[in-house]
């Protein structure tokens, strides 16, 4: 089938108009038309058309250029194409470059046509996508604040949980003394902070109060706009149901947080040889839940913005093409899900490290003592040492040495997997967003490994440890971004 000249002009800017041995070059064009030429139009190789069309086509083309020399509003490429098509029905020979560009533009044109289909299939407003990303940013912030709260031993300073009255902090000296006296009744004060002053108590109180207030703010920021968007029909049924699930998880997160605090207020902790604060199980559940809420918000925001944007199907077409033409790409795409899972598990294991203060032992790398595995890996199961030995598998969750070992090697496995993914990505011509995401992933991984080792070697200083926890969420974010860009179609 003959390729229309207007398509050749629009796509590649190169027209093989075979007329004789004459060429239309930049110097042949009138002065005020050279600007359009300079922006990409190259009219070349006008030669060798059939003899009966040669003279008339050339003369009429040049005559048209001269007549329109004074018009500054004409689109040179489109008008020239229209004139040439009106002169002759002779097919124009198409160069390889033109064929390639035409195929690309056909895909782009198809993408424009199918954008309306995407919008009809996913009828969620773009503002809802921005709202999800805003809420995800708030969750990121509360994870950072929560990490600093834990590192400064502030989490048990408020010994009650009141949803409404707890919003008001103490104002007078008398109110502060009431709160301070409540704190003195519990194990953390008696075992760890018995020398704390009222001013020092105020600092840890405000840290925990700020963490709780940010949690309330996130709840309101998600629920109130969510109700408005749902009432106005801004959400598709699927997004509305997902929003309801996330709102439920946010409510559950508050309950998890209180049970975590309550686990550090138990009187039986007075009998413990070492006070570690809250239960590592509740801490891991609280942190893991925050990561799940964050991931759901982030992926939902990405999905909405992708399906409601211009040329929404272009990326999907590229991914489909890669999947069909390169069988190994499907394996590559699936591996991004596995790496995201590894990153989550590594961060989850970090909560056990924090809960047991496991970062304060074996402050060396890569060895733990004289070997890669600590000698007391299964110490809690040794009947000769403990009156009530526990099953071996519980060492992995309750023995500080085993917990640190787990976290180290999960981290090294994750870093190795990310490096392998990056190397594998060089085999494929990835979309620009995917290439950017995979490069960001290897960079953030290197940063996170550096922060983790530094935190260990320097005995867990607050700034480094807080940066390390924040880095875990940044790493998860980057992996989810990559995973999203490689999806064939939004789900």
UniProtKB/TrEMBL annotation:
Its cofactor is heme b. The keyword Iron applies. Pathway: Porphyrin-containing compound metabolism; heme A biosynthesis; heme A from heme O: step 1/1. Pfam families: COX15-CtaA (PF02628). Keywords: Heme biosynthesis, Iron, Membrane, Metal-binding, Oxidoreductase, Transmembrane, Transmembrane helix. GO terms for biological process: heme A biosynthetic process. One of its GO terms (cellular component) is mitochondrial inner membrane. One of its GO terms (molecular function) is metal ion binding. Its main location: membrane. It catalyses: Fe(II)-heme o + 2 A + H2O = Fe(II)-heme a + 2 AH2. It is a multi-pass membrane protein. The chain crosses the membrane at residues 128-148, 213-231, 243-261, 281-302, 339-362, 407-424, 436-460, 466-483. It is found in: Membrane. The keyword Membrane applies. PANTHER family: CYTOCHROME C OXIDASE ASSEMBLY PROTEIN COX15 (PTHR23289), CYTOCHROME C OXIDASE ASSEMBLY PROTEIN COX15 HOMOLOG (PTHR23289:SF2). This is Cytochrome c oxidase assembly protein cox15. The gene is COX15.
